[in-house]
Amino acid sequence: MRSNIKKQLRIYFISSSEIGLGRIEEALKSGVTMFQLREKGDHILSGEALTAFALNLKNLTEKYNVPLIINDDTELAETVNADGVHLGQDDLKPSELSSFFDEKIVGLSVADQNELSVSDLSRVDYIGTGPVFETLSKKDAGKAIGTKGLKAMREAVGELPIVAIGGITHQNFKECLKNGADGISVISAISHADDIKTAVRSFM
């Protein structure tokens, strides 16, 4: 699954279990190219309930041939044999990952060039950059870097795949693609949509 990462990042949907498997399947069926389980927020699962949900989710992503990425929780990723893990700057460092992840997709959040300067990218397959625009979906998101910041990151990392995140909508996603992103990470523009199929396909 690692050979096609730029294409897989094209419409990268991030959500918690709260949205439900039915709506996630609708998104997968409609054209989402990568899915990340980010179990953070007020109404989240833990323990056996989270493991059971993630196992059902893995079956769904396999059905639609979409990589399943687990945010932060490396133990859960190993338990359900996820396709990869996404780490933040304050999480486990990529170099500290177990050998399980040697053949998996490893993503790292790198907001700007300051974070890039202290990031070890030796085991990283792609970086998530942003927030590009102001966002309410992630309470821990920093200041928006704009498309100018995104373009600067593209120039700084060369060919390493980049997915843009933060405040991305149907109105502004093309600006991200024009300024160096290989794909876009979307949370609320899909999860809060009345019609998920239309929401996903409008990003194509």
TrEMBL record:
Record-listed 4-amino-2-methyl-5-(diphosphooxymethyl)pyrimidine binding positions: Q36, L37, R38, E39, K40, N71, S109, K138
Annotated keywords: Magnesium, Metal-binding, Thiamine biosynthesis, Transferase
Binding site for Mg(2+): D72, D91
EC number: 2.5.1.3
Entry's Gene Ontology molecular function annotations: thiamine-phosphate diphosphorylase activity
Listed PANTHER family: THIAMINE-PHOSPHATE PYROPHOSPHORYLASE, THIAMINE-PHOSPHATE SYNTHASE
Function: Condenses 4-methyl-5-(beta-hydroxyethyl)thiazole monophosphate (THZ-P) and 2-methyl-4-amino-5-hydroxymethyl pyrimidine pyrophosphate (HMP-PP) to form thiamine monophosphate (TMP).
Protein name, UniProt field: Thiamine-phosphate synthase
Taxon lineage: Bacteria, Bacillati, Bacillota, Bacilli, Bacillales
Gene that specifies this protein: thiE
